[in-house]
Amino acid sequence: MTRTTENRPGSATDVTPGATPGGTSGSAPLDVRPAGRHALLVELPDAERTGAFHAELLRRRAAGTLPPVAEIVPGARTVLLDGVPDPEALARRLAGWEVPASAADDAGVVTIPVRYDGPDLTDVADLWGVAPDEVAARHASSAYRVAFCGFAPGFGYLTGLPDELHVPRRATPRTRVPAGAVALAGPYSAVYPRATPGGWQLIGTMPDPAPLWDLSREEPALLTPGTRVRFVPVEGGAA
Amino acid sequence: MTAVELTVVRAGALTTVQDAGRRGHAHLGVPRSGALDAPAMGLANRLLGNAPDAAVLETTLTGCALRPDHHVTVVVGGAPCPVTVDGRPAAWGAPVRVPAGAVLDVGAVTAGVRSYVALAGGVAVRPVLGSRSTDLLSGLGPAPLRDGDVLPVGAAGSPAPHPALPFAAPWPAPPAELVLPVRLGPRTDWFTPAALRTLTSATYRVSPHSNRIGLRTEGPVLERASTGELPSEGMVLGAVQVPPDGRPVVFLHDHPTTGGYPVIAVVTETGLAAAAQGAVGVPVRFTPVG
Q: Is the N end or the C end of chain A the one with fewer CB atoms within 10 Å?
């Protein structure tokens, strides 16, 4: 069963090197586009397959079977492979890959304690059609995964929120969102690693946000792409 | 060797520490950063016998002034500018010995945007994630220089760790017109055929809103074939991103690692070095390469 019903404007065929409909049943062919002389942008049909393809890239890199790639940068529906000495050769190899529908659940789980005391808690409760004191249980009951990072070092975009709980950004962004703010926008949840301007809806606070970005660690980011995340409500904040 | 410290007498409009930047952390949201005119940094370092990517100072339009507490040899290159030591004219683009306590003044550029001050031994601030570069987007690395700051300089080594070039090599002149070679894609299909023709035939100008994050342009609008929203995706150095106002922005070294506007083309490495020296108002043309 091949499902390639993705509806993107235009076609990528005129800029796709080594485009080969090499997908087997159950695995959509990869859409591989050049991005300059030394990078490839690989587009996938959905977030789940993007996560699975990213996990497969990391697995092959760890096993030493991936050609040299300086950066593997996942996005919402893409993975960018940058710093590739021979992108044409890599594109030909990728054409033969089979990507499973979703990543294996073998990545580590990070637990984030949250005081559900954010200034947008009641707005989000209204959007969800629940009482404010039910937001914590609804948000914390989902299993999340870091889809990609961006915006600031260590800022992870977490998927896993059910469709019916997606909320828009605030109409007016805040000039300062504090470090540790637990926030929602569209399909994503996030925890701000440091104070920045931001337009997301703030529903809670991670009491000690320092581990989110710690340059004294070998891996400075707590929420690296692929990491699974659970939010755990904790007491102690004024609601 | 005696450790040299530099006192910043005049920081200038924007002077930052730069080297080859941070690679391998884009997936964490960490920009690449690094000297915008990498060949200029490399040539200035090689004239001193430094490694080509030893940390240097990158100035912006108005230069800077520095006072070392021990004598140090420097090269000022990149955008041409007057150079003086205690008020006396000194060489641009070639090694200059600055005595202990003397003031090296790197003047305002006469063309281009960014001059580079390389010092024998290199700027020796503590690296962050493998680089000493100031990243203006994420705030990683040392803050931009301020008057009165003191910077450590590394041991120059004797003999120099790399053979110094025997004399000044020719420096490219800052461009009177930026001709930026581009490879089309990855998102050409988000634009109308007319937009592709416009990109590769129209003349844009460097916008005053340009910075280390991006070279912004003024000129004709690039029309999209679709008004949809692009899900966030990874961005490469040199990406020509087209925001909703339709004017192309060339991503420079402090660019965000992911973005949600379509990239119509990517500027080549040689084009990026030229873009680093494109002053406000300079004409910009994009020319496709294979």
A: N
Contact A76 B138 (CB under 8 A): no
- ipTM computed for the complex: 0.94
Q: Can you list the domains of chain A with their CATH numbers?
A: 13-94 (3.30.1360.40), 109-233 (2.40.100.10)
* B133 neighbourhood in chain A, CB within 8 Å: none
Per-residue pLDDT, A6: 35
- CA-nearest residue of chain A to B130? A215
Rounded Cα gap, residues B233 and B219, in angstroms? 26
CA distance B19 to B56: 6
As a whole number, mean pLDDT of residues A99-123 equals 89
Q: Nearest by CB to A153, from B30, B228, B236: name it.
A: B30
Range in A38-42, B2-6, B150-154 with the lowest mean pLDDT: B2-6
Put simply, the answer to whether A215 touches B225 (Cβ < 8 Å) is: no
Identify the pLDDT of residue B75: 97
pLDDT per residue over B182-238, tens digit each?
999 999 999 999 999 999 999 999 999 999 999 999 999 999 998 888 999 999 999
**Confidence (pLDDT) at A4:** 35
Q: Is the pLDDT of residue A14 over 70?
A: no
Check CB contact under 8 Å for B184 and A72: no
Q: What is the pLDDT of residue A20?
A: 36
- Which residue in A33, A75, A83 is closest to B231 by CB distance? A75
Sort out which chain B residues have CB atoms less than 8 A from A15's CB and list them: 184-186, 188-189
User: Concatenated DSSP letters for A176-226?
Assistant: EE-TTEEEEEBTEEEE-SS-EEE-SEEEEE-S--GGGB-TTSSS-BSS-TT
Question: Which positions in chain B touch A149 (Cβ < 8 Å)?
Answer: 27-29, 257-258
Going along chain B from its start, the domains and CATH numbers come out as 4-153 (no CATH), 178-288 (2.40.100.10)
Determine the distance in angstroms separating the CA of B180 from the nearest CA of chain A, rounded to an integer.
13
Residue of chain B with shortest Cα separation from A75 = B233
